[in-house]
Amino acid sequence: FPLWYMQEIENYRTDVRIINTSLLATDWYIDQMKRKAYESNPIPSQLTHDKYAYGVRDVVYYSGKSDRIWNVKDLITWVASEDPKTKISYEIEGEAIPYSSYPTNKIRIPVNKENVLKSGVVAQKDAHLIVDYIDIELPKSGIGKNRLMMLDILANNDWERPIYFTGGSLSDDEYIWMKNYLQFDGMVYKLVPIETPIDKTTYDMGRIDSELVYDKIMKWNWGNMDNTSIYHDPEVRRTGLAYRQSIARLIGVLIEEGKRQKAKTMLDLAVKRIPVDFYGYYFTLEPMIDGYYKIDETQAARSLFLQVTQKYQDYLRYYLTLTPQQSEYMVSEIEYNLRRYGSLLSVVASNEDEKFYNEQEIIFRNYIEKILKTSSFQDEEEFPKSDETLENDTI
Predict the structure, then answer these.
(1) What span, in angstroms and rounded, lies between the C-alpha atoms of 370 and 11?
(2) What is the chain's mean pLDDT, rounded?
(3) Which residues contact 267 (CB under 8 A, 6 or more apart)?
(4) pLDDT digit string (tens) for 229-241?
(5) Contact of 65 with 79, CB cutoff 8 Å
(6) Helix (H, G, I), strand (E, B), or coil: what is residue 209?
(7) SS3 164
(8) pLDDT at position 393 over 70
């Protein structure tokens, strides 16, 4: 909806075709996508209206008739066929009902390298990374009409127009089963014929062209995100979280590449434009504190650490005003804030800021002991004792 607003009201980037993949399961919406809108050409597609009309191919089932790898365009041709051999029958109330099917779940998407470079899907400097084709596996059950249409677009686009995904979903089918072929461009994921497996430790998707993303972020229009005279409502705070996490990903890459000054620019920008006081979700600031440490900006790391711990301490001081009976209802919140506070301390410990860590660890332990004495927590093993070190406890 924000993207529709930008096009419809602000007349911004009307050359982009926005596709709502949920609505892509309806024939009327597919028909809209097949018409030119503003400067955006129709979606590339070989399926005609009669092949996706209401009640037609709402689901396409896997038949398992072949174990070969099929070209994606051949698959669409098979699914669109009315030939009886392309159907699979299911018995409903004693009657065999034919349904459209796909004979194999192994699909190959050819890569037109000339179009990939011409359309800017991949930068010339990364041309050597382009693969010849992408193989995917569809479910051995069935796919909905919207996924069929996504495959139809993919089959007929031939890499002439860049395809982006907004993200926000963990489902493989939302990325046409190609999570390993994404490039994170700041707020969206671009489909690129360069293999980048998902990071098994962070579950981050996509490669990052640090120079590209850095330039994009430097051009962002921040509006009132850091305006102290307005109320930042919960929806704005959730949105701010996405921006902060995007910048954190870039910072990590910049540090790995040794681009310390650019990393500092991004850190300073994130702290200024997405202030601690307005946005909550304080755990998303841990990478920022770690980033400052990694580029030897120790004072900045400590300052940000103290701002965040002040928030956790505010919560804990409030919990300490509750009766044991009241605190019973807030056990999970109390535990959450203590553990996030402890996680923040672990960032300091991992960066070997020993003197500062020792000072802050004492303060942290005092809060734990006060909570244990005044709340409904009875099991002292639930939290580390004051004489334990952070490296050995469970926080």
Answers:
(1) 57
(2) 91
(3) 251, 288, 291, 292, 295, 297, 300
(4) 999 999 989 888 8
(5) no
(6) coil
(7) strand
(8) no
- Which spans in 13-144 are helix H? 27-33, 49-52, 72-80, 113-118
CA 358/CA 352 separation, integer angstroms: 11
Q: What is the pLDDT of residue 376?
A: 56
Q: Which residue has the tokens 């796909």?
A: 102
Q: How many CB atoms lie within 10 A of CB 237?
A: 14
Three-state SS for 23?
A: helix
Listed as own residue / partner, the contacts of 390-394 with beta carbons closer than 8 Å and 24 or more positions apart are: 390/342, 390/345, 390/346, 390/349, 390/357, 390/361, 391/349, 393/342
Helical (H) or strand (E) element with 24: none
Distances (CA, A) of 371 to 115, 141, 315: 62, 52, 12
| CA torsion angle 112 182 11 120 (round to 10) | -40
pLDDT at 325: 82
pTM as predicted: 0.86
Please list the residues that pair with 37 across neighbouring strands: 40
Q: CA 74 → CA 69, 151, 157, 344, distances in Å?
A: 10, 11, 14, 53
3-class DSSP state for residue 109?
A: strand
